[in-house]
Specification:
6-stranded mixed beta sheet; alpha+beta; 23% strand
Length: 472
């Protein structure tokens, strides 16, 4: 249960702070009721069905640029609202956590001693954006079973980078353009502080009759079994044109830009147990880029490689424990229900429950399907255990806090932070930095299989007793 020490009103509080504390307290009470109603209506008739047994709620939430304390960042009001929402679940996978874990520590202080967290390291490189993957979990309901690791691709597997394979030389390249290459191309441009016109994004230009000057230190490599001309024993003679699959170029060290052969942000796998239910959970934040072109292909490639690698891991490793289910959850940056990015997720044995497929998008505007929860072969027979998803939904907190109607309440706070006038559009954006531009997605899973286990024992006993004496 959350604790609210910062809301205590003291004699030192000025009138504005007192108003803010009272408003936060009132909103927290309203949020509690809204969450309870949301969970009850999402579960429907099963809510009162005693056979459903004990359950846990598993959630994924991309909390926008979460971490650290800075002017204009999340104050106690926003942090209390975030903590109140998280407290409604038992395991929450959080994406977009910055390197500074101060925000997670503040959340845990509010959530109380029952809550703990496990965080990944920060993924190196610009595509990783200095982010961590974090699991927050309620230790009174869920046990971390001491297995955690990052998912990397095996030898030979790689992500199809948006820019393709590129040569990255320390001093650039020297390229003589042919007459057919000298033309005007469409490009996204920007101007720097010195008035220089620069490319805003990578530009790929097909080459025709150009000549490339190879850098110093480049070698020609002829591979084993290449057919060559030998003027005398132990010697070969090079022709004027070298081509074919047996001819290679060895470029200077660090010439190839292959930083995206792995995931932009490394997926993080954790093992949990809640009651009888064992879960291996992998949280992800898939490369975003653009919604079309090469960058979209990289996004799709990451999802495909993710499900392939996880399915391979499940077949080889997790199968040793045949009572464990594998789930993947997080921000997949999926474009739409029928889009190739969704089909990439629903491949290699991974399935999304129908309860989640029927709800609108997980972004604030509810028109994007970025966040998802999928399980590997969820209907497979594991004896007494099963993956029983009793409910699933998305909680739209902006229906209850920082609502559009609340804009006037926050005008003074916004103008003090930004030194600008607050408009309707600016308020809608500003509030996503207080809360998030993503909504938490969740599923409720049954954790009590004790009765099924006993039934399995009794079933086996009956089978033994039914064997004729002369056959024993």
């Amino acid at each position: 249960m959350p604790f609210y020490p910062e809301l205590r009103i003291t004699p030192e509080d000025d009138s504005k702070l007192r108003i803010k504390k009272r408003r936060t307290a009132e909103n927290l009470k309203h949020l509690k009721i809204a969450l309870s109603k949301h969970f009850s209506t999402s579960k429907g008739e099963q809510c009162n069905d005693p056979s459903s047994g004990k359950t846990i709620k598993l959630a994924t939430w991309n909390i926008r640029k979460f971490g650290g304390i800075k002017p204009g960042g999340r104050d106690f009001e926003a942090m209390y609202y975030i903590a109140e929402i998280i407290a409604g679940f038992d395991i929450v996978a959080i994406q977009e956590v910055l390197a500074n874990l101060e925000g997670i520590k503040r959340l845990k202080a509010i959530l109380g001693p029952d809550w703990d967290h496990i965080a990944s390291d920060v993924t190196d490189g610009d595509p990783g954006n200095g982010e961590r993957m974090v699991f927050l979990y309620n230790r009174s309901q869920v046990q971390f079973t001491n297995i955690a690791g990052e998912l990397t691709l095996k030898e030979g597997a790689k992500i199809r980078a948006a820019f393709g394979e590129r040569i990255k030389l320390e001093n650039g390249i020297e390229l003589k353009l042919g007459r057919k290459d000298k033309k005007v191309y469409d490009a996204k441009l920007k101007t720097d502080s010195k008035g220089n016109t620069k490319l805003k994004s990578d530009l790929s230009i097909p080459l025709k009759d150009s000549t490339l000057q190879l850098p110093k230190g480049t070698s020609l490599v002829l591979t084993k079994n290449a057919i060559v001309e030998s003027p005398e024993p132990g010697k070969i003679k090079l022709p004027s044109l070298v081509s074919g699959k047996n001819a290679r170029l060895k470029l200077p060290e660090n010439s190839f830009d292959d930083s995206l052969r792995q995931f932009a942000r490394t997926p993080y796998i954790i093992s949990f147990q809640a009651g009888w239910l064992k879960l291996n959970l992998c949280t992800v934040h898939i490369y975003y880029g653009a919604a079309s072109g090469d960058k979209l292909m990289q996004r799709k490639s990451e999802i495909e490689q993710l499900t392939k690698a996880l399915a391979n891991k499940a077949e080889k490793e997790f199968i040793l424990d045949d009572k464990t289910f594998l789930g993947v959850l997080g921000d997949f940056n999926i474009v739409g229900h029928d889009h190739p990015t969704m089909k990439a997720l629903e491949s290699n044995g991974f399935e999304i429950n129908e309860k989640l497929k029927t709800i609108p998008g997980s972004n604030v505007e509810r028109d994007k399907f970025y966040d998802q929860i999928a399980f590997w072969k969820p209907s497979r027979n594991l004896g007494y255990a099963s993956l029983d998803i009793q409910a699933g939904n998305i909680f739209d907190f902006f229906e209850h806090i920082y609502t559009v109607e609340d804009k006037a309440i926050y005008e003074e706070e916004y103008e003090q932070e930004k030194k600008k006038k607050l408009t309707d559009k600016k308020f809608k954006d500003w509030r996503t930095y207080k809360m998030s531009d993503h909504l938490p997605m969740w599923v409720e899973l049954r954790t009590d299989f004790g009765e099924a286990y006993l039934d399995a024992i009794l079933s086996n006993q009956r089978k033994v007793r039914s064997i004729p004496p002369d056959k024993i």
